[in-house]
Amino acid sequence: MRDFFSVWTLIRVSGFLAFYLMTLSLAIGLFSSFSILKKKKARMVSAHQISGWYGLLTICFHLLLIWQDQYVPYSLAEIFIPFYAKNEPLFSGLGTLSFYLFFIVVGSSDFFIRRLGIKMWKKIHFAVIPAWLFMLVHGIAIGSDSSEPWALLLYLTSSSFILVLLFMRLLESIMLYQPAGQGKPKK
């Protein structure tokens, strides 16, 4: 039981939980943007925000645990300065960048959306895509469980699901914003 609550185990669990919550938030955000779900939008946006905040808090917990780890010690500078870590600087840096991008997206959504205006907020909000991709690469590359079949399945299904949602959203936006008269076959 003691090993279950070790720092190392909690680092791994918090990393997967953060990935799950941010994937959930991204998926709900994409779903809420579909025109056929307009009636459910308020509920979905609420779930999107809640899962995003819990994901961000879980990332913070993950960072705190990494700082406290004795096996692979990280200094605060290594945690907060991208690509500065001695251990896997590229992939640690992608994790750090992911954290910053998620922080900006979540923070701007809840605290600065009115000041930014909807157009600027949307531009900032799109940073969630590279943030999620950086998180995915970070987890696959330096996660100690990444070679396990269950972890590979988690990453593969999550990635596939997000890609399908992004593709569907792109298709819908193309179809909805097509100028009148285009896209119809000529007789």
**What Rg, in angstroms, do the CA atoms define?**
19 Å
CATH topology: Four Helix Bundle (Hemerythrin (Met), subunit A)
Q: What is the name of the CATH class?
A: Mainly Alpha
Q: Helix amount, in percent?
A: over 70%
- Give the SSE string: HHHHHHHH
Count of individual domains? 1
Number of strands: 0
Q: Main β-sheet: number of strands, strand sense, barrel status? A: none
What is the level-2 CATH architecture name? Up-down Bundle
Low-confidence stretches: none
The proportion of residues in beta strands is: under 5%
Termini separation: 73 Å
How many distinct helices?
8
Principal-axis shape: globular
Question: Could you report the average pLDDT, rounded to the nearest whole number?
Answer: 90
By helix and strand content, what is the structural category? mainly alpha
Describe this protein's structure.
With about 190 residues, the chain is mainly α. The protein has a single domain, classed as Four Helix Bundle (Hemerythrin (Met), subunit A) (Up-down Bundle). Helix content is about 75%, strand content about 0%. It contains 8 helices and no strands. The protein has helices at about 5-30, 40-70, 75-80, 90-110, 115, 120-125, 130-140, 150-175. The longest helix is centred in the first third of the chain and has 28 residues, at about 40-70. It is globular, with a radius of gyration of 19 Å. The model has no long low-confidence stretch (mean pLDDT about 90).
